[in-house]
Amino acid sequence: MIEVDLHLHTTHSDGALTPAELVSLCGNRGLKVIAVSDHDSTDGILEALGAAKEFPGMIVVPAIEMSTDIPGAEVHILGYFVDYLDVNFQRTLRELRDGREDRARGMVKRLSKLGFPVSWDRVEALSGGGAIGRPHIARAMVEAGYVEYPRDAFDKFIGRNGPAYVERTKLEPVEAVRMLLSNRALPVVAHPTYVSTKTGADNIADLWQVLTELKEAGLVGLEVYYGDYSSDQVSTLSNLADQFGLIPCGGSDYHASGNPSEPEPGMVGPPMESFEALLALSNTDP
């Protein structure tokens, strides 16, 4: 039985459920430990912590997901036990969210020139006041009838190689790791196979250089149990985590996106031992 999910999103970034709705879903499915890990935002954490009081024994880990860039791909870094009251950290997050919004505006303009206009007002409304990102544009495109599912918008228009793609404010993986460590958060690489896939690499061994640099910078974990990973991928990543001395983490990366076959809370996650290892490093009382 899956009891831990360390990768979840809410309406404070690109998820479709409020923090309270997400906590309720997870609690009713028997999850004991969850992490609210919105993109460049910690605004949903307090609501999630409050909602968890309805589920005695549930632990909500304050977390975040940060997008960083390497040539040809993105590397996402999760931060666990983040200090969401850190003023300097929040200032940086605001700058990153502003960069996301600028990029989103640029994509909307490009879509219009391509003959697929979407309303910026609608994109903002879909964000619900949270950090605006590409998934909100994708949902607007579904509503407009341009694509069937949000993932189609990424595949055809707003993915890295799409005609409407716009670069955003650059942040390197090592910078994100150091930023999280200065916040006393624990940095973990999210969905690592995406790195090799988006760079055109043939296999996961090409992560070696990235992980070597990040381990030296202070990386503590690797997302091994994720979304729709196959058993072979999990086995390969587990071995890689062992070689680098990283905690094997994971989760569903649930957004309630509307894409078919989206992994949901309770379907995938790391063992409780992984959370306990993170907890021991955090010096935090659960």
Q: For the largest beta sheet, what order do the strands appear in spatially? A: 1-2-3-4-5-6-7
Given the structure, what is the number of helices? 11
Mean residue pLDDT: 92
Q: Largest sheet, if any?
A: 7 strands, mixed
Gyration radius, in Å: 18 Å
Shape: globular
* H/E series: EHEHEEHHHHHEHHEHEH
Total strands: the figure is 7
Q: Strand pairing plus helix content: what structural class?
A: alpha/beta
Strand content: 15-25%
Low-confidence stretches: 198-202
Helix content range: 40-55%
Q: What's the end-to-end separation, in Å?
A: 21 Å
Account of the 3D structure:
Helix content is 43%, strand content 15%. With 286 residues, it is of the alpha/beta class. Strands 1-2-3-4-5-6-7 form a seven-stranded mixed beta sheet, with helices on both faces. The protein starts with a strand and ends with a helix. Mean pLDDT is 92; it is low at 198-202.
Key attributes of the depicted protein:
286 residues
Strand and helix layout:
Layout: E1 4-8, H1 19-28, E2 33-36, H2 45-51, E3 59-70, E4 73-80, H3 87-113, H4 120-127, H5 134-144, H6 150-158, H7 173-182, E5 186-189, H8 193-199, H9 208-217, E6 221-226, H10 231-244, E7 247-251, H11 272-282
Parallel strand pairs: 1-2, 2-3, 5-6, 6-7
Antiparallel strand pairs: 3-4, 4-5
Helix pairs in contact: 1-2, 4-5, 5-6
Précis, in short:
With 286 residues, the chain is α/β, with parallel strands linked by helices.
